[in-house]
Amino acid sequence: MFEQVRQIFAFAGPALGIWLSGPIMSLIDTSVVGTTSSLQLAALGPGTVMCDGLSYVFMFLSVATSNLIATSLANKDEKEAANHLARLLFVAFGCGMAMLAAIRFSSSSMLQAFVGAKNSGIVPAAATYVNIRAWAWPAVLVTMVAQSASLGMQDSWSPLKVLLVASLVNAFGDILLCTFLGYGIAGAAWATALSQYVAGILMLTSLKAKGYNPLAIVVPSFKDILQMIEIAAPVLMTMLSKICFYTTITYFATSLGPLTLGAHQVMIGIFTLFSVCGEPLAQTAQSFMPELISGKTRNFEQARTLLKTLLYTGAILGFSLASIGVAVPFLVPQLFTNDSAIVAQMHSVAFPFFWSIVLTPPALSLEGTLLAGRDLGFLGLSMTSCFVCGSLLMKIFHKLGLGLNSCWWTLVLFQSARLAASYTRLHSSKSILKECAPAATS
Is residue 297 included in any domain, yes or no? Predict the structure, then answer.
């Protein structure tokens, strides 16, 4: 187990930077904009949901890339891995162009429907932010596939170096465009979009250095598309359920007024930053489990030991991250806002905020294992059930007028249900970690 812990940290440590990049960029935007305008801070709420939230919908591309390449390399077939990469890069670029067109065409109407008539004052600022960042959609999705390919090759250092550069570009751009040149929320959007193109170019260069030609993209055949759909469809259902649930939280927070929405925007940004610290554990499972479950050197006992190690690590990590995260709104709220009313709202949700972070890393460890073993049908169904039940519960709390606190307690229940469902599945007779388990269906 000690050796497995060492391997986990050797891989997951650098991978952490990859998952932190997006939330850090959004938090930089939140910090720079929030200290200058409370209205624009509120506008970042729906704006980042549309940009970052929709990008998570396309995580099915990331999962499919990592899974297909890791499985190909586990079976010692580098040619097949290169073919998968070429096809997925084509799909990513096509999806990126489609999203660029869709967002530019419909952003204002989507934002108006999201925030409602009572908060229509924040729509122009939010639409400005969304429309500018829309230009980076092709780069965002190509970078996502390139990063996942590198992780499937068990290389987490190259993406980390790339994203460190991109984050620095974003921070410098935010300070220059927002603080010194006074472009406000528009400057934050341009800085983020530029950094995403920098990340895409550097990531493709990194793949080329590994011997893969990123420009040799291939149009997928019908058979290739079916294989992608087999993996991607249930993963998409899983991602949509998570994104829709987080979006629902912001939707109900929006109806509570600009001050409450501003507080929620800061807290959900901090939550995202700290909760994604558990994503490297899920990625570790997706990168190493295929070899133990279905590779030429399969070893189910070692796979179960790896899962146990990931769970222990996730539990310790969850409590550590939650302790740090909950201190932020109490010790340094001025990093995000100088409005005392917003700060008071932030303090009111501290307890459920703490537990929502604690539960996330172990839940992600379990879900990463299910993804690695392609038990995708169960994962999609369980996540959809959690979303439906959580949304209904939140609506009831909203009708009762329980305020922002109820949104965060519903998030705690959502995370608890995810963890319980995945844990039960992996310890049942149908577990993918049992030698005699039936083949997982998707």
Answer: yes
